[in-house]
Design a protein that fits this description.
Low-confidence stretches: 207-212
Order of helices and strands: EHHEEHEEEEHHH
Distance between the termini: 37 Å
Number of helices: 6
Structural class: alpha+beta
Largest sheet: 7 strands, mixed
Number of strands: 7
Oligomer: single chain
Length: about 210
């Protein structure tokens, strides 16, 4: 499944009722999860017992959880909740009809991949130990290019800052386009200039680390 070695395959249902009884989420969280998720099943275990990769002090196993969705979208709150309830490194395979996305919770952030046909997914187990395998899988899911000299958390944070700046620039550019007062138009232009300078600094900082 998903291009993983056959030795990793398992089948262990995670009944929602049993999870609710054990972890007792609040009513709002329980309703959101119940409205969007039909069933959960552990379908793969990536560990030294199933693949030829060593564990490390942070990651001893990675589990793949197949989530059958009732709706096309899965709220990130559901992924965060499941990740907090179950203390394991987990990849969530979000299946809706014949398409699938992968999601993961890392550094208090939910990362979700693009949607593909279910049989098009091939997960790569790259890395000298499970810690490196986990980071590479997160990079694959989040569309993150891992670079030397920066850890995964730093790259995710830098990407978020870059996306935030780009959104701010787009908002100001739209306002400037619709503004008729010359003074306000100039203020927007100056704001755009400052944000673009910050964006350039951030991108240059990333590129410098990539070239070291």
């Amino acid at each position: 499944m998903f291009g993983l070695p056959k030795a990793t395959e398992i089948y262990k249902p995670l009944p929602k009722k049993a999870m609710f009884n054990k972890f007792k989420p609040n009513a709002a969280d329980r309703k959101l999860l119940d409205d969007q998720i039909s069933r959960l099943t552990i379908v793969a275990e990536i560990s030294p017992q199933t693949v030829s990769v060593m564990d490390n002090e942070d990651v001893s196993a990675i589990f793949v959880i197949l989530i059958a969705l009732k709706t096309a979208d899965c709220d990130k709150k559901n992924i965060a909740l499941l990740s907090r309830l179950i203390d394991q490194r987990m990849l969530f395979a979000l299946q809706y009809e014949d398409t699938m996305r992968f999601a993961a919770y890392h550094a208090e952030r939910v990362l979700i991949s693009e949607s593909k046909p279910t049989d098009a997914w091939k997960l790569n187990l790259d890395g000298l130990d499970l810690g490196a395998v986990w980071e590479n899988l997160i990079g694959e899911i989040g569309g993150i290019e891992l670079t030397r000299g920066k850890n995964l958390d730093e790259i995710i944070a830098a990407n978020e800052r870059r996306e935030k700046l780009m959104k701010q620039i787009a908002v100001l550019e739209k306002k400037a386009m619709n503004e008729r007062q010359p003074r306000r138009k100039w203020e927007y232009a100056e704001g755009i200039k400052r944000l673009k300078f910050k964006l350039e600094e951030l991108c240059n900082g990333t590129n410098e680390n990539e070239n070291t």
